[in-house]
């Protein structure tokens, strides 16, 4: 097997064996500690321009299922695993992890102590990394010189609107690089979905006569998006029920005056207990976050904090005091991770139903 | 054994939604009082009060309303002196308050009509809103709920049964054919 290297911005290098594509790539290094769901993780567009380190020791041993992709075109920059299995469980016994990564030009390295890398990141904080053939001075120079894009959303979000028809509530999903799990959960509730580009104006959205609007998950920093997105949110939230998830949650917070800060180490996993404040219930959920809402910056006359991460204290959920507009940092759709909080989609459909019953005159 | 329409989690979520909507509509919790209609409405009112406590760190008074004497399907002897005797437990004044009436099921509207009369006899609230866990339709009076946990369109032949863990063995809403 070809030997390849994962080299880190701080000068460290990890030797391992190649699988998947043999491309040379550079991205932000993030560690994911979720025990299952590698397929959902790799295909989630939130990992655009990132190299994913799996701390779960064996990856690829369940095959890939046609109903578990979180996007059609994954754009992660690499997959680092301890041990990889090349099992195909699809109908034609074709799609193994290796084949999938080759098809999408994503390089992989195995036989690396991924938990050591995770610990290293925990100590040193977020950093860039490259997957290269030779870990020499030249490779490190290249890595240091590489400037990663801050236009992730524009690169992965749909440039054109598209429908996902059904016969229920009319939902507009604003795509910041969404994961399919959001569409799946809305479809289960019969929603007639239109996915619109991230830079759609409130006028465009409201002209589609929505019963509700979803702000999707997505990659990168919310601060890289223009003020016009926040303006859209401020106008839409006064008109129809609004549900923000992940990046959508961060944007909802910013639109209502809160500040966002970058986490020293990105958190990707489903091992943090989350407390719902109103009921004091504890649950778990998939979390993929590099940023968090700064709790001190929240204007309590406008927003409730609804959920808190009990390990790092980060704000995990918000709700507007005056409108049925709410948001969560975590992934209530699971995919992967626990589905403890999937009922948030029921809350959203109930708020939409209520608005329809009242002909909107509650606003 | 009927079909479960709302399980424990769904019931909790419905009460949580109602709580947020109460704060939303009243622009806060100032002058708010909750009055539960016997029997299960009282437990639901207490749960909403618990949520408001968690959310706003305020204790909202909860009253218990017994509407027996106001029911329109019981013949009252107007000469009897105990007509207005009731088992209400409302140790606060409703004068000038924003009253939220809480009941488990909204059906014909007759219970709510009776509750409105009973509350009015206690004083003159600033407003009265109605919160129900389930609205099953088939109103016989011009009454609507302001806060609904779940709309369950039902046939009049069916029965809706609400269980609360405080006095029943579980939290659930069942539809019995």
Automatic annotation (TrEMBL), chain A:
Pathway: Amino-acid biosynthesis; L-arginine biosynthesis; carbamoyl phosphate from bicarbonate: step 1/1; Pyrimidine metabolism; UMP biosynthesis via de novo pathway; (S)-dihydroorotate from bicarbonate: step 1/3
Main enzyme class: ligase
Keyword Methyltransferase found: no
Protein name as annotated: Carbamoyl phosphate synthase small chain
GO molecular function: ATP binding; carbamoyl-phosphate synthase (glutamine-hydrolyzing) activity; glutaminase activity
Family membership: Belongs to the CarA family.
InterPro entries assigned to the protein according to its UniProt record, in alphabetical order: Anth_synth/Amidotransfase, CarbamoylP_synth_ssu, CarbamoylP_synth_ssu_N, CarbP_synth_ssu_N_sf, Class_I_gatase-like, CPSase_GATase1, GATASE
Entry-linked Pfam families: CPSase_sm_chain, GATase
Taxonomic path: Bacteria, Bacillati, Bacillota, Bacilli, Lactobacillales
From TrEMBL, chain B:
Subunit structure: Homodimer and homohexamer; in equilibrium.
Keywords carried by this UniProt record: Glycosyltransferase, RNA-binding, Transcription, Transcription regulation, Transcription termination, Transferase
Role according to the record: Also displays a weak uracil phosphoribosyltransferase activity which is not physiologically significant. Regulates transcriptional attenuation of the pyrimidine nucleotide (pyr) operon by binding in a uridine-dependent manner to specific sites on pyr mRNA. This disrupts an antiterminator hairpin in the RNA and favors formation of a downstream transcription terminator, leading to a reduced expression of downstream genes.
CDD domains cross-referenced by the UniProt entry: PRTases_typeI
UniProt name for this protein: Bifunctional protein PyrR
Alphabetical GO biological process terms: DNA-templated transcription termination
One function term, GO molecular function aspect: uracil phosphoribosyltransferase activity
Organism: Lentilactobacillus hilgardii
Superkingdom of this protein's organism: Bacteria
Enzyme class: transferase
PRPP-binding (motif): residue ranges: 99-111
Family: Belongs to the purine/pyrimidine phosphoribosyltransferase family. PyrR subfamily.
UniProt xrefs under Pfam families: Pribosyltran
Xref: InterPro entries: PRTase-like, PRTase_dom, PyrR, PyrR_bifunctional
Catalytic activity: UMP + diphosphate = 5-phospho-alpha-D-ribose 1-diphosphate + uracil
Assigned EC number: 2.4.2.9
